[in-house]
Amino acid sequence: MIKTIISEYKIMTGRVKVNIFKILYNWLFNPNFRVIVWIAYMQKVKSKLIKKLIQNHLEIKYSVLISMHCKIGKGFKLDHFLGVVIGRDVIIGDNCKIYQQVTLGQKDGKYPIIGNNVVIFPGAKIIGGIKIGNNVQIGTNAVVLHDVPDNSIAVGVPARIIRN
User: Fold this and answer.
1) What is the pTM of this model?
2) Both 33 and 87 in a single domain?
3) 43: left (phi > 0), else alpha (psi -120 to 50), else beta?
4) How far is residue 136's CA from residue 120's CA, in Å, rounded to a whole number?
């Protein structure tokens, strides 16, 4: 757990050297940091019991519903974690940022695959077995039901591509 805390601090700050007091300060007073560390640790640990305990802790304390079966890449950020839902078989690439009230859910038993460097703005819903490309932005309150190609912006209900 300590290694996860240190590595997430390095990712968050971009620093190579760490200051144990700053890490402790962030752990105690920055709930975003704690949520990210718990998610990263849940991805690394093998025990289903520990994964389930972390999943329940995130749900009860922070109102974040993240399945213990999803796959999340490095550099994952939750700027405002309240109300985020990530389904069972969702795959999220590296360096993705998700804001509050985002849902990554299933349709017909299939879950979305999110590429690298994706930003999903507040209230967006990505539903079903679709693929979101790399370097994509999903607009606020967008409902994405179809694939989004690389280097695009998707907005609206239902979402449409406004730039390639």
Assistant:
1) 0.89
2) no
3) alpha
4) 8
Nearest-angstrom CA–CA distance, 114 and 136: 9
Phi, psi of 3 (to 5 degrees): -60, -40
Same-domain check for residues 101 and 40:
no
Question: What would you measure as the largest C-alpha separation in the chain, in angstroms?
Answer: 48
Same domain for 114 and 150, yes or no, is yes
Question: What does each of the 164 residues of the chain score in pLDDT, given as a tens digit?
Answer: 888 888 888 888 888 888 889 989 989 999 999 999 999 999 999 999 999 999 999 999 999 999 999 999 998 999 889 999 999 999 999 999 999 999 999 999 999 999 999 999 999 999 999 999 999 999 999 999 999 999 999 999 999 998 76
Burial group, residue 19, by CB count within 10 angstroms (0-12, 13-18, 19+): exposed
Helix 2-13 to helix 31-44 angle (10° resolution) is 120
* Residues forming a β-bridge with 103: 85, 125
76 and 43 within one domain: no
Indicate whether 31 and 69 sit together in one domain: no
